[in-house]
Amino acid sequence: MSSFKSEPFLWIHLAGIVTFPVFLGIVWFGLSVSDRLPILWLEILLMVGVGVLPIFLMQWARPFEIFSLLVLAMKPDKITFQQRQILSLFKTPRQQILSAATALAMVGILYGLYQLPPLTAIASSVLTQSRFVGLLIASIAFAAANLFLQVPISVLGVLSTGEQQFAKIEPYPTEKIPQDFTLTGFRVDKIIPIKPVPPEK
Q1: Contacts of 14 by beta carbon, 8 Å cutoff, 6+ apart
Q2: Exposed site from 13, 79, 118, 132, fewest CB < 10 Å?
């Protein structure tokens, strides 16, 4: 059987981390619009509530089901034996610890963004001085940044598993995938036209 580390979906979602700094740049831009609220921590708590908690809770309770791409997701009954073993790794306590650590790191990153000088001149030339608009842009971008950090970090946690350890992993039950994982998009039989390698008997 081929190594689980050659699974294309793992590397596709790991590569999503390249968008992380782009979304952070958008967050900085959004925060630069208009004057900041008098109570800094109130604004940070709002940003954390919108941009960190939902993604963290998803990864903690119902991890993102990585066998999907854009608006397409593989039907649970089309996911192979090896792929279901990979899904089992996403439900381990270690993955929850990684999710919690990533969420805390995102809070620290958000605080760091607040310490940067605002892009006032650029922001004011593009948008009207509306704090609501700025916060909306920053919150949405921060949620996207969190997603594109949380998922790759969880993928790294899976990739750090040894081959011998992986061989002992039980595949995740097909019938439990929809209730225990977050599936997005239209469900299809196949996304990547690669013939799966059957497990060894």
Answers
A1: 152, 155, 156, 159
A2: 132
Global pTM exceeds 0.70:
yes
Contacts of 49 (CB under 8 A, 6+ apart): none
The structural domains of the chain, with segments of one domain joined by +, span 4-188
Task: List pLDDT tens digits, range 122-168.
Answer: 555 555 556 677 788 889 999 999 999 999 999 999 999 999 999 99
> Contact, 89 vs 163, CB < 8 A?
no
Residue whose C-alpha is closest to residue 4's, from 72, 112, 80? 80
CA distance 61 to 147: 15
How many CB atoms neighbour CB 152 within 10 A?
20
